[in-house]
């Protein structure tokens, strides 16, 4: 057998040995051809991919880069980049976070997170954002370097930032408009209605000046005016929860929940708090109120629920607001702006309010399984 060839074996003939040598040479040729093809394949991946690839030591010295890296980072040749320290490419903040992350990779002996975002400076000083996927290079079970593939996501981030900027502006403008309309309603419209109602009161008081029939019509007119004023006051309150500043979040949410319960009698509406409640900055209280208001509006409009719970959890450094219903639920779109593109702005507005305060926002919903909206804000 071929495997026994190297063992001293006196019984093997010279002819047989030559045949074995011939086979071995053939095998060697085949393997070396395969190696060349594989090498060429790897090399073409390295050179032709649209991704930046660079290999570096654990200390941060760049050992190899592909042409894409040279082009993207604005250098003339690969040699210019080889030997550079990664800190020359990364912004100080990104370098610091990379080093922290690397400590974790080395400790865990693996990289659990798929992508990292880093700020990189091109040779001409221009800043770009990359999405990087690092992997550990091991030799005999020892980690000896890091290979990173990366792509430029500057434009994508810019678009996202623009979108967030507009959303933030819209949210602020909306709040401003609401404030303005609520003030106008209160200071002009409602004042005028009150004046008209008072004048009618005076007329009703002077019964000797006109026939009785006119007085009953005046009374009817006054009742209509008072009803309109009541609706306008209610509308102004919706627009601007005026009591929020004085009362704080919990009582104002209790009011909101009670009002919802009075209007939607068939929905069993509950309000709960946990922890000891405390006052939050006005912009946080207003945002949480708006989120609860829109979530309840959605329950009324879409859920067909029989139960809804509004819950506020006060932890020492965090407040969580949850609005959960047992209604028909819906399929949550994969992209955040999925509904916004169809002109539905409630959910994206809630998300934006939470984001503006650096908070978290989650929607749990499935057709037939109710909906749960949770916002968490660090206080
Ligand atoms: N509690 C809920 N139960 C069932 N479906 C819901 C619920 N909340 C939201 N949805 C679904 O999600 C969609 C998006 O909600 P969103 O609040 O963004 O828009 P909208 O209520 O349709 O319109 P808008 O809020 O802009 O007036 C709704 O059209 C509805 O299909
Ligand atoms: Mg809505």
Description:
This protein folds into four domains: 2-46; 51-152, 2-Layer Sandwich (Beta-Lactamase), CATH 3.30.450.20; 177-240; 241-379, Heat Shock Protein 90. The strands form two sheets. Strands 2-1-5-4-3 form a five-stranded antiparallel beta sheet, sandwiched between helices. A five-stranded mixed beta sheet has the order 6-7-8-10-9, covered by helices on one side. The chain contains ten helices and ten strands. The protein is elongated, with a radius of gyration of 36 Å. With 379 residues, it is α+β, with helices and mostly antiparallel strands. The model is unreliable at 1-5 (pLDDT under 50). A hairpin with a 2-residue loop joins strand 7 and strand 8 (318-325).
Task: Give a topology summary.
Elements: H1 14-48, E1 52-57, E2 62-65, H2 67-72, H3 78-81, H4 92-108, E3 116-121, E4 127-139, E5 142-152, H5 154-205, H6 212-239, H7 244-247, H8 249-263, E6 268-274, H9 282-303, E7 307-315, E8 318-325, H10 346-356, E9 360-365, E10 371-378
Parallel strand pairs: 6-7
Antiparallel strand pairs: 1-2, 1-5, 3-4, 4-5, 7-8, 8-10, 9-10
Helix pairs in contact: 5-6, 5-10, 8-9, 9-10
Adenosine-5'-triphosphate binds at residues 298-299, 301-303, 325, 327-330, 339, 344-347, 371.
Quick rundown:
Helices cover 51% and strands 21% of the residues. With 379 residues, the chain is an alpha+beta fold.
